[in-house]
């Protein structure tokens, strides 16, 4: 759902730091990372987007998440985003670090790959998204880890240290490349933002993608399959056999693929066989192949009689 096309070429290795300990004042102090969009918490949606990270560090109090991460806190807790980033960075080792807020409902892995590719192909210290109004979004960005550490060390040497510093004090000292992406940079700062995000994923062009992602996340499935194949199978089973055959058949196809410990290819092959069977049923129901299933006049029930 990102406006940016997926980056091509060799993936850039990276670590991720997710800042999830803000006060959420414009949400009345609500637990913002735990709010749900499309049935998934905001933080789980962000963690799914950065699942390719070598190490993912979340700076916040511990909470259940759908994938394992490393946890840390800024010192003292509530000292602000610069102090939080410094705490998270201490647990990273990769040359590049993706820095994210925990309230990005539309962030996708392709967006992060694109940012990392842009960063690799320039001499900049970082590549960040800009929102629909052209504003910098430093918490949807990829940085050179060494550049972050250099500037954090300079800020920490000041008498007041890192506590309470705004992010612009850090990013203002960096050379940055900007990548416009109004969708991926959309964050949920207010209740209206949350309502808009929930409405957007139910739009016709996105709802199936969102639903499948949510189901896979809920069931712990990491498998990319051709959704169109399964939809065609459900249609053929419903039309050629009976409407309840659609969900039952797709379940059995998935079960067959799992028994064979197969990936997308196994699902596709099982679906092909099931579609062929549904088409044979439809042919019989339409009066075709009268002699294909046995001798005419043998007394067997017709497809119509069996229904």
List the helices and strands and how they pair.
Layout (H helix, E strand, L loop, with lengths): L14 E5 L16 E2 L2 E2 H8 L6 E4 L10 E3 L8 H9 L6 E6 L7 H12 L5 E5 L5 E9 H12 L10 H5 L4 E5 L10 H10 L6 H13 L7 H14 L4 H15 L4 H22 L17 H4 L1
Parallel strand pairs: 1-4, 1-6, 4-5, 7-9
Antiparallel strand pairs: 2-3, 6-8, 7-8
Helix pairs in contact: 8-9, 8-10, 9-10
Summarize the structure.
The chain is α/β, with parallel strands linked by helices and 307 residues long.
Describe the structure.
This protein has 307 residues and is α/β, with parallel strands linked by helices. The protein has helices spanning 42-49, 81-89, 109-120, 145-156, 167-171, 191-200, 207-219, 227-240, 245-259, 264-285, 303-306; strands spanning 15-19, 36-37, 40-41, 56-59, 70-72, 96-101, 126-130, 136-144, 176-180. A hairpin with a 2-residue loop joins β2 and β3. 37% of the residues are buried. Mean pLDDT is 84; it is low at 1-7 and 292-307.
Strands of the widest sheet, in order across it, are 5-4-1-6-8-7-9
* Amino-to-carboxy terminus distance: 43 Å
Could you estimate the helical fraction of the residues in percent? 40-55%
Biggest sheet overview:
7 strands, mixed
The computed structural class is alpha/beta
Helix and strand sequence: EEEHEEHEHEEHHEHHHHHH
Number of beta-strand segments: 9
What is the residue-averaged pLDDT?
Answer: 84
Helix segment count? 11
Into which percentage range does the β-strand content fall?
5-15%
- Please compute the radius of gyration using only Cα atoms: 25 Å
Low-confidence stretches: 1-7, 292-307
Shape: elongated
């Amino acid at each position: 759902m990102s406006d940016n096309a997926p980056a091509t070429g060799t993936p850039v290795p990276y670590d991720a730091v997710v800042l999830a300990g803000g006060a959420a004042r414009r949400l009345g102090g609500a637990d913002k990372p735990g709010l749900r969009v499309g049935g998934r918490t905001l933080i789980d949606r962000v963690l799914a987007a950065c699942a390719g990270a070598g190490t993912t560090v979340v700076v916040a109090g511990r909470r259940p998440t759908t994938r394992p991460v490393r946890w840390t806190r800024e010192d003292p807790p509530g000292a602000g985003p610069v102090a939080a980033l410094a705490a998270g960075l201490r647990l990273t080792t990769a040359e590049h670090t993706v820095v994210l807020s925990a309230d990005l409902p539309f962030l996708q892995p392709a967006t992060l790959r694109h940012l990392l590719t842009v960063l690799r192909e320039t001499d900049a210290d970082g590549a960040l998204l800009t929102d629909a109004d052209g504003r910098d979004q430093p918490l949807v960005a990829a940085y050179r880890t060494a550049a972050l550490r250099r500037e954090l060390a300079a800020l920490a040497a000041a008498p007041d240290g890192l506590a309470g510093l705004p992010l612009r004090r850090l990013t203002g000292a960096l050379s940055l490349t900007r990548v416009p992406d109004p969708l991926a940079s959309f964050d949920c700062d207010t209740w209206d933002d949350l309502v808009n995000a929930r409405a957007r994923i139910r739009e016709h062009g996105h709802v199936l993608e969102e639903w499948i992602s949510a189901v896979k996340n809920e069931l712990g499935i990491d498998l990319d399959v051709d959704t169109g194949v399964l939809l065609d199978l459900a249609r053929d089973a419903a039309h050629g056999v009976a409407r309840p055959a659609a969900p039952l058949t797709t379940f059995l196809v998935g079960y067959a693929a799992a028994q064979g410990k197969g990936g997308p290819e196994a699902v596709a092959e099982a679906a092909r066989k099931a579609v062929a069977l549904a088409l044979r049923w439809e042919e019989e129901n339409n009066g075709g192949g009268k002699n294909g299933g046995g001798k005419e006049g043998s007394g067997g029930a017709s497809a119509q009689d069996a229904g």
